[in-house]
Amino acid sequence: MLLIGAAGLAQTACSDGGATTDEGQGGSASSGTASGGGSSTSSTSGNATTGGATTGGATTGGATAGGTGGAGSATAGGGDASATASSTTGGGAGGEEPLGDDLPMEIPTPSNGGGEIRNQTTVLKNAANGGQDVYDFNNQKIGVNNTADCDDGEGQKTVFEVEHGVTVKNLIIAGGLPGGNGIVCKGDCTLDHVYWEDVCEDAATNSADGATMRINSSIALHASDKVFQHNAKGGSTTIVTNSYIADFGKLWRSCGDCTANGGPRHLVVDNVRVEGVRTTVAGANQNYGDTVTITNLHVKGGYDEDDDKPKICQEYRAVTDHMGESQKLHGGASQWNTATCHVSKSDVKRW
């Protein structure tokens, strides 16, 4: 892996595996272990530059990412590419920078032309581990040299692993095979103005028990199955706001068959536009106490109540350790104002 931060910190793989199916099994969530090869330098190799990141404090799902406490740059070493992210200090702890509420509808033009395909997963280390708490990529497009087919269900390389408390801004994840397993959050994280051209395995995965993964003002396109995978348990939360998601199977799925599966897992969706929903917006495990809260959901062409299309919130009975398959409850019909699905038809609007 390429590591941005102090050298020598081992990164461990997420334990949740299994095949990705229409029932929401947990996909590959990480890419194994690696020893850090990064160093605190300002050198840059080739076009592998990670955009300058200003650290000013950002709210991360209830946790605040403050300033780094020092200026400089952190370089990711290893492979034939180095990822350099220069940082400047900002407001520090207490200098919170609220997320914007703009809803982008088009992916920006990459600032690095055709983009960059890295050979290894890049780990974005937090300030406590020698990195920084905010990484601003200035709309660079980045992927990873992934050889596993996007529909295989496992084995795809992760493009970025994000440590606890880190905010990632203005990043384009390359589409198709180079999109790999997207972004894996290893703790509280915020993905702000992050764009997925063509989701391969998953766009982003919530993998740390009790953590909050927040996606704001982002775009994700063309996911054959899930967009956001939720493997973490223990009251962990995924929040999606002010975003546009199109041509996908499920916007969010609570893992239907993870190792030592359980819950509860929570989803919050507010001010999101969707179109081309093939399966459902959200799939939650009723038997593990999951909840889905949806407000201001805008569906292209509207919700057809007579045909229940597209599905908005489906309830499942999940399983653990590959002991069978998770099952849709209520015949797979959308559920409204239940203990699991906190959503009213009045909150589903047409655009």
Give the overall average pLDDT.
80
Separation of the first and last Cα atoms = 42 Å
- Main sheet? 21 strands, mixed
Binned, the helix content reads under 10%
Q: What is the fold's blueprint, element by element?
A:
Layout: E1 2-4, E2 49-54, E3 58-60, E4 63-65, E5 72-77, E6 83-88, E7 116-118, E8 122-124, E9 134-144, E10 160-162, E11 166-173, E12 183-185, E13 189-196, E14 204-206, E15 212-216, E16 219-230, E17 236-254, E18 257-258, E19 265-285, E20 291-299, E21 311-317, E22 319-320, E23 327-328, E24 341-342, E25 348-350
Parallel strand pairs: 1-8, 2-6, 7-9, 8-10, 9-11, 10-12, 11-13, 12-14, 13-15, 13-16, 14-16, 15-17, 16-17, 17-19, 18-22, 19-20, 19-21, 20-24, 20-25
Antiparallel strand pairs: 1-5, 3-4, 5-6, 21-23
